[in-house]
Structure formats: structure tokens, C-alpha cells
Amino acid sequence: MKRVIAVIVIAALTTLMVGIDRTSWADQKSDQEKAEKQRKAVDKSLGGMGRGTTATLQRKDGTKIDVVIEAINPDTVTVWRQNQDRSVGTETIPIADIAKIEKMDPGKAAKSHKALIGTAIALGVIVGLVAICASSYSDQQQISKS
């Protein structure tokens, strides 16, 4: 019986100290403010974009994808994106699911293309040198046999 009374007294004292009305752990107002702030930031970013804009989109779950904007609606964004099987697909993404969207830096794509072109040229030169060396080696072999 003493244990039950002790538990009731502790519960009553805790309730008086903390208060029933103070449910700070369930503060939904700040969550709504965060969502509105995020929505305004995404809307501001989308304001400078239009159809055909290449952008980097980050979802709320953290995944980043490169997309081309097809259409911007009040609550959704329709984009073209490259799927894992290298096909291009259309996807409609709710603005509430977008954490951040930024225009893609054209220099970023240009740098990667320049690197690929440079690599291809270097490989072409190496293959050409190997072909020349192999050709001259086979010519020397034929001369020495004669």
C-alpha cells in the first residue's frame, strides 16, 4: 500500500512541476514552420527555373538526382530523369518531398565532358602507338627471316 501511495505522490508532484498543459515534446507548430520555410525556399528556387532547366534535386530522404524540368505546377514538379537502366523517364514529385533544388552549374557538365574527351584522345593515341610498334616489330621480323 505504501508503494501505491508513493507512486501517486510522485506522479502528482511531477505533474505539478512540469504541468499538464506544457507538451513541449509534441510541438507541431515548429514542424509546420519548418515545412513552410522549406516550401518557400523551394518555391523561390523554382521561380528562376523553367521548362528545360537542368537542375540537381535533393529529396527529403537525402537522395540527390540530376533532372531536367518538364513542368512546374503549384504543388508538384514534373521532371525527366535518367533511370538506373539508362532510360529517360518522367516523374512527378510533390514539392513537399523536395528538400532543395538548384540549377546545375553548366561548368560542371562541361568539365566532365572535357575530361571524357581528353581520356578518349589519350586512349586513341596509346592504341595508335601500340599499332605502330606492332607493325614495325612485324616488319623487322620479316626482314630478319629473309
Descriptive tags:
alpha+beta; 146 residues; SH3 type barrels; elongated
Describe the structure.
- Among the domains are: 49-104, SH3 type barrels (Roll), CATH 2.30.30; 106-146.
- The longest helix is centred in the last third of the chain and has 40 residues, at 106-145.
- It contains 3 helices and 5 strands, in the order H-H-E-E-E-E-E-H.
- The protein is α+β, with helices and mostly antiparallel strands and 146 residues long.
- 53% of the residues lie in helices and 24% in strands.
Helix content: 40-55%
Shape type: elongated
- What is the CA-based Rg, rounded? 32 Å
- Strand arrangement across the biggest beta sheet: 4-3-2-1-5
Oligomeric state of the chains present here: single chain
Strand content: 15-25%
The largest sheet, given as strand count, sense and whether it forms a barrel, is: 5 strands, antiparallel
Counting DSSP H or I runs of 4 or more residues, the number of helices is 3
The averaged pLDDT comes out at 79
| Class from secondary-structure proportions | alpha+beta
Distance between the termini: 116 Å
- The CATH topology assignment of the domain at 49-104 is SH3 type barrels
The CATH class designation of the domain at 49-104 is: Mainly Beta
